[in-house]
Design brief:
Tma16, Tma16_sf, Translation machinery-associated protein 16, 3-stranded antiparallel beta sheet, mainly alpha, de novo design (two linked rop proteins)
Length: 178
Amino acid sequence: MPKALAKVHKHISKKRGPLQALHENSRDAKRLRRATAREDRVARGAASLSRGRQSYIDRIDYFQETVPDGTDPLSDADMLDLIVRYINRSVPEIEQLQSERRKGRPPIKREEALLERTDAENRELKTGFWIPDFSQPEVIKALASWKGDWSGLSALKFIRLTKETGKQTSVFPPKGLS
């Protein structure tokens, strides 16, 4: 049985004519409502998935801009320095928002969001920060040619880097502490 809204709509139109002639509780009207509900559900799921991936795409985009194409492979210390700069990228904006706020007033939503993001990234650094392996020259070349899409990240090799334990190989897409 077809589930896509376009297929259901087309099938009912061929069989019955214009859709205004449907009775409210007819089988065809119920099929149309189910197909519409499914399409909405699928769209919400796709939007949620896209929002979850966007933080990783923004991260890789930042590293693509920061690490030039002809750069030599980076050491672990250089990668940690790069991560710390990435985590602290919003500190000037946070300080500005705090200075603009009157004493005794609660922080605005933007300031709370920036602080929460910074805290989450600091926690991730303790457990293993997910980044491309900049110690390999082919990863730096592949990052330079990356177009900004999610599927293009599968060509890169990733690691989890921590201050204490160093680096550990990881997979794409990021899952837990892999």
